[in-house]
Write a structure and sequence with these properties.
InterPro entries: DUF983. Pfam families: DUF983. This is DUF983 domain-containing protein. Keywords: Membrane, Transmembrane, Transmembrane helix. By secondary structure, the protein is mainly alpha-helical. The protein has one domain. It is built from three helices and no strands. It is elongated and about 60 Å long.
Length: 123
Amino acid sequence: MQHETSELIKSGIRLKCGACEKGSLFRSYLKFYDSCPNCGLDLTVADTADGPAFFVGFFTMIVITPLILVAILSFDSWIAKAIAFIIGILTGVIVCLLLLPPVKAILLNLQIEHNSGEGSVAS
């Protein structure tokens, strides 16, 4: 099942299975199917856990926070600063909500391809 990493990322962005690139991964907003509806690939073998939330949150924080600060500091009245702050926060939330599904799909496709699992200590 060797796929190129770029193919897995592209199929993840499209929210598709990394194996067949046709089956949908999600049955709802952030809930995976148990298996691919098209090829039957078992999707329960990998768990993305908090990885997508971390990457999306960190990216959003690095990009949006400076924009919010610049917008707030560029106004003199407190009302304009408050409006800029609210718009910045809403923008950050929307960006996070839009990026979470594709990032989760990408991480799942990569985990399945590379047979990554829970770590263990060898004794």
